Amino acid sequence: MIQVAARIVIWVIVIALAYVILGPKGFDSSDSDNPFASETPLYLPAAKPPRLRELERRLHDGALGADDAQEYHALLKRHQAAFWQDRGETVEQALADVGNGRRARLQQILIERGLSDDEMRVFFTVLDRDHPRLLDDRD
User: Fold this and answer.
1) Do 115 and 139 share a domain, yes or no?
2) Are residues 137 and 101 in contact, defined by beta-carbon separation less than 8 angstroms?
3) Shared domain check, 59 and 4
4) Cα angle 3-5-6, degrees, rounded to a multiple of 5
5) Could you tell me the residue range of the domain that residue 137 belongs to?
6) Please, is 64 exposed, middle or buried when counting C-beta atoms within 10 Å of its C-beta (0-12, 13-18, 19+)?
7) All residues at 6 or more sequence positions from 92 whose CB lies less than 8 Å from its CB, including other chains
8) pLDDT in tens, 76-97
9) Residue 104: which residues within 8 A CB-CB, separation 6 or more?
10) CA end-to-end span of the chain, whole Å?
11) Residue 43 vs residues 11, 15, 47, 89, 129: alpha-carbon distances, Å
């Protein structure tokens, strides 16, 4: 038992020393400075169906009945399942004719598609992490 513990301690020390000597770059196999950067295109999320938007308004107003609540949850689940599917228009295609103000234009597109503030926050977080230069202004 002591031998097993000693071996574990030795391996932890060896790995810690390698990390200290090599740094995080020694363990990062990606070519870029950002290990999360991705070359795959990011697609716009699907637009919310009008019925889901209507039910969300009624939920916000407090006028959602039991039958409507079931329909709302089913539509919401279907929308969330399709949120990250790679189909339709990419962000790059949607912003192809936009030089400056790309972030604001994308936000406007997402609002037109009916995304909530939380959904937009998540989308922009993933976009900034995986494609950090996609929303930079272009001349």
Assistant:
1) yes
2) yes
3) no
4) 60
5) 31-46+86-139
6) middle
7) 41, 42, 134
8) 898 888 888 878 888 888 888 8
9) none
10) 66
11) 43, 39, 12, 6, 15
What is the percent of the chain with per-residue pLDDT over 90, rounded to a whole number? 19
In this structure, the answer to whether residues 10 and 70 fall within a common structural domain is: no
Q: State how far the Cα of 24 lies from the Cα of 30, in Å rounded to an integer.
A: 11
Q: Which two tokens stand for residue 51?
A: 């019925």
3-class secondary structure, 101? coil
What is the average pLDDT value for the chain, to the nearest integer?
Answer: 84
Indicate if the alpha-carbon torsion angle 81, 83, 86, 87 is positive or negative.
positive
Please give the DSSP secondary-structure letter assigned to residue 33: S
In 3-state terms the chain splits into helix, strand, coil percentages (rounded to 5) of 60, 0, 40
What is the tally of structural domains in the chain?
3
**Average pLDDT score over residue span 10-26:** 82
Is 48 in a helix, a strand, or coil? coil
Same domain, 96 and 133: yes
| Domain identity same for 97 and 37 | yes
Question: In this structure, are 98 and 128 located in the same domain?
Answer: yes
- What is the reported pLDDT for 33? 63
Q: Residues 17, 39: one domain?
A: no
